Amino acid sequence: EDQVTQSPEALRLQEGESSSLNCSYTVSGLRGLFWYRQDPGKGPEFLFTLYSAGEEKEKERLKATLTKKESFLHITAPKPEDSATYLCAVQVKTSGSRLTFGEGTQLTVNP
Amino acid sequence: GAGVSQSPRYKVAKRGQDVALRCDPISGHVSLFWYQQALGQGPEFLTYFQNEAQLDKSGLPSDRFFAERPEGSVSTLKIQRTQQEDSAVYLCASTSPGWASDTQYFGPGTRLTVL
């Protein structure tokens, strides 16, 4: 069974304090790994897709990396507006186009 | 351009009532997905359409759940005889077919509360 586990469940940072969120996965053939941001009362907002081990993508203060077993979302010098829940999801070759999500990491950045 | 829209945004139903949730995908997007998100959890897959064809409905939790997309654009998720455990946010996503993995773009969701 495909599994996605995110850690920590919640993370509280001071503004400017860099850190990383983890997404570990056990799947039978990865097609792609997705990172989304979700604000309260809203739908998930797409951030990145990673396809193969060693791949990295960046957007402003965020950088996503991928290995054969896990992905990291690095947040450099975060700001309060980065506060949100970050969701990781996988798309598996044997499961068509559906996404399997982790439970998310709730990030709070204090000013 | 316009994103995925869903209506209503909030729905309160008494246990046993039927509800219908609507999704308008991004114009031109062929594929449409429904997910269910319980409070504090990640979204869980319900069903998937490519045009009007429902290609995967393996995530629907019971035969009380039914989805349709008759003309390959707007989709409706119907829940019959609602139960308290159906309370959740129902998310719709759409994507345009492309190479390898396709990015799914989500709507704002419909929050269903069953009393």
Tell me about this structure:
The complex is a heterodimer of chains A (111) and B (115). Chain A is an all-beta fold and 111 residues long. Helix content of chain A is 0%, strand content 59%. In chain A, a hairpin with a 2-residue loop joins strand 6 and strand 7 (62-66). Chain A is globular and about 45 Å long. In chain A, 34% of the residues are buried. The mean pLDDT of chain A is 96. Chain B is mainly β and 115 residues long. Chain B has strands at residues 5-7, 10-13, 19-24, 31-37, 44-50, 53-56, 65-68, 75-79, 88-95, 105-106, 110-114. In chain B, strands 2, 4, 5, 6, 9, 10 and 11 form a 7-stranded mixed beta sheet that branches. In chain B, strands 1-3-8-7 form a 4-stranded antiparallel beta sheet, with no helix packed on it. In chain B, strand 4 (31-37) and strand 5 (44-50) form a beta hairpin. The relative contact order of chain B is 0.33. The mean pLDDT of chain B is 94. Chain A binds chain B through residues 4, 31-32, 34, 36, 41-46, 49, 51, 87, 89, 91, 96-104, and chain B through 4, 31, 33, 35, 40-45, 48, 55-56, 59, 91, 93, 95, 100-109.
